[in-house]
Every structure is written in structure tokens, then in C-alpha cells.
Amino acid sequence: MRIGILGGTGPQGRGLGRRFAMAGHEVLLGSRDAARAQQAAAELAVAGDVTGVANADAAGAEVVVVAVPYEGHADLLASLADALEGKVVVDCVNPLGFDKQGPFPLDVPDGSAAQEAQRILPGSTVVAAFHHVSAVLLDDPEVTDIPGDVLVLGEDRDVVARVIDLVPAIPGARGVYAGRLRLAHTVESFTANLIAVNRRYKAHAGIAVTGLPDATAGTPA
């Protein structure tokens, strides 16, 4: 599959790009600065087929992952709405703030970053996924097992299933259907809890849903 990553030079975008490339996908690593994207792509070339491009060019891929900081989320998507028409858009943005007490979820008028994306991109199919996988582990080629579950949320069952099929690009990970897009707020917000856990225990913990038969975990209800 040809996968574009908006914000592909950031920690999460770069890590996902590495794993998608290692799994055999063609990756367009996007950035506001095409030269910066090309440099990052050169560093990831050992992983597989990775090309550094401007975000607008990454938006031309079959599936487009949004991995930009939340403060630039709405403006970037609005600027690329035409290019993203008819595309599958996978939003993994976590709207978080930080103060002296640590991380906390931000209030998003649309309910979540994913719902904001769907409002801005009415001609695209937005799916929320990949919020809780450690960027550090994703971008470390020495790490060969990243166990845990990736919660995938969306309205279109077939598209959700396609995104779930991408999850095994992360070795040890499993895709789990976690509801409609209106539930994305709780998934995005829980990232603040994970950051607090990881800071306390000096870890890169993810999440795991127990009690699901492997054969049905990825099937939208």
C-alpha cells in the first residue's frame, strides 16, 4: 500500500513510517519543509521504500496518516481538503496540554481531533488509530516486538478493517475495533494517562484489551 504521512518528520510520524516501510509498504514522508522530509527519508531508507516530500504531496497517497501536533491540525487539513478528497485519512493526533502537574487532555470543540478532521474533510473517510504506540519504540530498529493493541475507530466498517490490516506492520501489535468516531475523545485523552504512567515507571507502556478471541478482535460490530 502507498501510505502518506503528514508530519512524517515528527516522532510518531517517523516511527510509523519506519514500521510501514519495514512491512513492505511504500511511504511518502511528509513535512512542511520538503528538504527536511528528504533528509528524514534518507535516514529511514534502510527500512524500505521511503520518500521525503512536502505534506501536499504526501496527501496524494492511497492512505494518509495525520501525525502533526494538534495546534497545526485544523489549518493543515483545511489547506489539503481538496487533495484528500476521497481518501482514507488515519488521524493519530492527541490534543494534549502540559503544565507543572503533567499532561492533560485539551477540550476540542468538535469532541476530538478525529471528529475535527472529519468535519474539515467531509469528502474523506476519517479513522482514528495509532494513538498509544510509543514513538520511541516505533523508531528503534533494534526493537523487534511492540506488544499491545491499537484501538481503531470509525464509521465505515470496510475502511476500519483496512486500517486494522495495517496494524501488523508494528511487530507484536493487534488492531482492535473500538467504536464509532464519536468515541475518539476518550482514546485520545487516555494518552495523557499513558504519558503519566511512562514518566512514573520510566517505561514505554502501551495498552492491551484482554478477553478477546484473536479471530474476532479486529471485526467491527
Automatic annotation (TrEMBL):
Is-annotated flag, keyword Aminoacyl-tRNA synthetase? no
Key word DNA-binding present? no
What the entry lists under Pfam families is as follows:
F420_oxidored
Annotated keywords? Oxidoreductase
Ranges for domain Pyrroline-5-carboxylate reductase catalytic N-terminal come to 2-95
User: What NCBIfam families does this protein's entry cite?
Assistant: npdG
| Protein name from the UniProt record | NADPH-dependent F420 reductase
Top-down, what is the taxonomic lineage of the species of origin? Answer: Bacteria, Bacillati, Actinomycetota, Actinomycetes, Propionibacteriales
Q: Which gene encodes it?
A: npdG
